[in-house]
Amino acid sequence: MGRWQLWVNPRVAEGDRWHSSSVGLVRSPAILGDHLVSELRELARASDDDMALARAGQFLNKKLRGFECERRLLLRLADSARVMLLLQRTIESVLGMNDQLDSEIREIWDRNLESERTEFTREIDKILRNEEKLEVEMGDDNQQLQVLTLLKHQLDHI
After folding, report:
1. What is the rounded average pLDDT of the residues 62-68?
2. Number of domains, the chain
3. How far apart, in Å, are the Cα atoms of 3 and each of 39, 55, 56, 84, 111?
4. Could you list the residue range(s) of the whole structural domain that residue 122 is in?
5. Residues 6 or more apart from 25 whose CB is under 8 A from it?
6. pTM (2 decimals)?
7. I need a labelling partner for 18 at 20 to 30 A (CA). Which of 25, 33, 91, 98 fits?
8. DSSP output for 49-67
């Protein structure tokens, strides 16, 4: 796990789902990608040469940083299509390295990602059903414009 410690750890806090000191599934406020991050981290830990896994982790961490740091759930919702596509592509890439694209592992990873998407959707639904929380999430005019701009950008790139 040497390269993971060099390339991923410096980007995150100890205790973060990405940090090599974490073991097993670490749930995060981001929800999406929790299982995949733990699988990548554990594969890197078990590998004699974790270079490819550490690069994948470093790349994914960089691409997810904005999503993970965003506390407003509606902004995360607006960005979730990009994140889901990125997570799906990472699953394909990592399993492709080990020629496991048509394996049971793929089915498990896909089911875990779908489960996270369902959980994420439930969190969104809770906000939409609570007027007070929705008003806080919507924020001011600038924040509303930010959500709409991100949604438009996502729609333009589907």
Report:
1. 97
2. 1
3. 16, 8, 11, 26, 29
4. 3-156
5. 34, 35, 38
6. 0.88
7. 98
8. --HHHHHHHHHHHHHHHHH
